[in-house]
Amino acid sequence: MSGTWESTFGDVRPPDGAEVIDVPTASRSYQVLCGRGLIDRVGPLARPFLPGEKVLIVSDANVWNLYGDRVADSLRSTGLEICIFVFPAGEAQKNLRTFGTCLEVMADAGLTRDDGVVALGGGVTGDLGAFAAATYMRGTRVIQVPTSLLAMVDSSVGGKTAVDLAGGKNLAGAFFQPSLVVVDVDVLASLTPSLLIDSFGEVIKHGVLSGPDLFYAIANDPVTASLGPDGCEGLDFDRMVSLVAANIRVKRDVVVADERESGLRQTLNLGHTIGHAIEAASGYGFGHGSCVAAGLAILCRGATALGLTPAPVTRAIQTCIVDYGLPTATDVPVEAILERARSDKKRHGDTVNAVIVRYLGSVDVVPMPFGEFSELVRLGMAL
Ligand SMILES: NC(=O)c1ccc[n+]([C@@H]2O[C@H](COP(=O)([O-])OP(=O)(O)OC[C@H]3O[C@@H](n4cnc5c(N)ncnc54)[C@H](O)[C@@H]3O)[C@@H](O)[C@H]2O)c1
Ligand SMILES: [Zn+2]
Fold first, then answer.
1. Whole-number pLDDT of residue 242
2. Residue range(s) defining the domain that contains residue 301
3. Domain co-membership, 183 together with 302
4. Per the domain annotation, does 195 fall within a domain?
5. Residue 154 near ligand 1, beta carbon < 6 Å
6. What span, in angstroms and rounded, lies between the C-alpha atoms of 248 and 274?
7. Are 224 and 196 in contact (CB under 8 A)?
8. Residue 199 lies in a domain
9. Regarding beta strands 116-121 and 54-60, do their DSSP bridges make them parallel or antiparallel, or are they unpaired?
10. What letter does residue 271 receive in the DSSP assignment?
11. Backbone angles phi, psi at 92, to 5 degrees
12. Strand (E) positions, 25-90?
C-alpha cells in the first residue's frame, strides 16, 4: 500500500500530535508516524498493511519484557493471530543462526505471503526482523517499531536490512523497505542514559548534514542535560518528537534521492570511515554513536588543517559533541585506525570517499587517495 496519509487511512486522523513523514522511495512508498503513546496503537495503525491473519513479532528479550505484551494486545485487538520470536539482546545475536531460527519460526507458524513481521526493538531487531521479512517466501512485509534512539533516527528508515557474518558486520542483507514505521518516543524512557547519549552521535551528524536550523535545535540547550544518572524518564518527550521527526526527514531526503547508495546516500557515512575504524580497532569497546562523534571531530579538524572545512564550522561541531558528553578524540593509535580504514569495505580502489563538511548543511563526497586521507587523519588526531 502506498500514498499519502489520507489515501492510506481515509478518515482515520493521525494520532494526536504525531508527525507523519512520507517516504516515497522507488521500491515502496510508506510513512513514518512519530509521536507519543503510539506503542499501544500499533495494531490499528499496522492493520491496513497486514492483509493476512497472522503476524510475527520479532523482539529481543529486553524489549519484549518491557513492551511485548502491549504491542501484542494491540495487534490482537485487530483480530490478528500473534506469533512471537524473541532472542537474547545484543549485536552478537545479529547472525545467520538467529536469522535462520526466525525463518523456521515463521514457517512453523504457517505464515503466508499475506502475513508479516512487526520488528519491535533496537537496530539489531530491526535489521534482523526486516531481513527475515525480506527473504521469507521471497518477501512478505515488515512494520518497524523502533525502540532505541538509534533505531528511530537511523536504522528503521531507509530499507537496509542485514545480519553479520564472521567476516564482518552487515555482510549479508537486502534492501527492503518497511510498509510502515511507528515511532513512539515515550519508550525512550526505559533506555539507559549512556545508550541514549551515545545515539546523539548520529543525531548531531544529521544536524550537520541538514543545516543550521536543525543543528542549532540540537546544539542549543542539549536535550540530555535534563537526565539523571539512572534513567531517561526526565527527557523532554515533546521536544524529542520534533527532534526525532526532523532527524527522520534528513534520512528520508537522502534515501529517497538515492535508495541503493550509489551517490548521495554516501553522505550519511559522514564521520563513519574514521568512526568505524575506532569502533573496530577498540574491539567494539565504545558505542557506535560515540565512535561516530569522535570520527566526525577528527575528520573536521583534519579537514580544517587541510583548508577543506572552515575553522568556525569545526569549532561549532566540536562544541556540540562536547556538550552532549560525547568524545572528540580517541586513545586508539592512529596506525590502528588507518589500518582499519584501509580495509573498510566501502573503500574504492586506492581512494577513500571522504565526506567533507563545507559548512553546516553542505557536504561533499571527495574521492581521496589513501595517502591524503591518512594525512587528514594524522592531522585531525594530532590537534
Ligand atoms: N539498517 C540500517 O540502516 C542501520 C543503520 C544504523 C545502524 N544499524 C544497526 O543497528 C544496530 C544497532 O542498533 P541499536 O543501538 O538500537 O542496538 P540494539 O538493537 O542492540 O539495542 C541496544 C540495546 O538497547 C536495548 N533497548 C532497545 N530499546 C530499548 C528501550 N526502549 N528500553 C530499554 N532497552 C532498550 C536493547 O535490548 C539492546 O540491549 C547495529 O546492528 C547496526 O548495524 C542499521
Ligand atoms: Zn552509524
1. 96
2. 270-382
3. no
4. no
5. yes
6. 24
7. yes
8. no
9. parallel
10. T
11. -60, -20
12. 29-35, 54-60, 81-87
Instruction: Check whether residue 13 and residue 142 sit in a common domain.
Output: yes
For residue 214, give the C-alpha cell: 536543525
Q: Does residue 288 have an active-site annotation?
A: yes
What domain count does the chain have? Answer: 2
Task: Report whether residue 63 contacts ligand 1, using a CB cutoff of 6 Å.
Answer: yes
Mean pLDDT, each 10-residue run in order, the chain (383 residues)? 57 75 95 97 96 97 98 98 98 97 98 97 98 98 98 96 94 97 98 96 97 97 88 94 97 89 86 94 90 98 98 98 97 93 72 95 94 96 89
Question: Relative to the alpha carbon of 296, which ligand is closest?
Answer: 2
Residue ending a domain, among 143, 172, 190, is 190
How many CB atoms are located within 10 Å of the residue 364 CB? 11
- CATH (domain of 131): 3.40.50.1970
Question: Which of the listed residues 140, 160, 190 is the one where a domain comes to its end?
Answer: 190
Q: How far is the CA of 275 from the centre of ligand 2 (A)?
A: 8
Q: What is the largest CA-CA distance in the chain?
A: 61
Catalytic residue among 62, 94, 141, 269: 269
Residue of 162, 160, 154, 152 lying closest to 176 (CA atoms): 160
> Cβ–Cβ contacts within 10 Å for residue 97, how many?
10
Query: Which of 36, 47, 94, 251 is flagged as catalytic?
Result: 251
Contact assessment for residue 114 and residue 51, using Cβ atoms and an 8 Å cutoff: yes
Q: What is the SS3 assignment for 108? A: helix
Which residue's CA is the closest to the ligand 1 atom numbered 5?
155
CB 109 within 8 A of CB 145: no
Q: Would you call 6 a catalytic residue per the annotation?
A: no
pTM over 0.90, yes/no? yes
- Say if residue 173 is in the same domain as residue 283: no
Residue 85 in grid coordinates:
520470536
Q: Which residues pair with 20 in a beta bridge?
A: 33
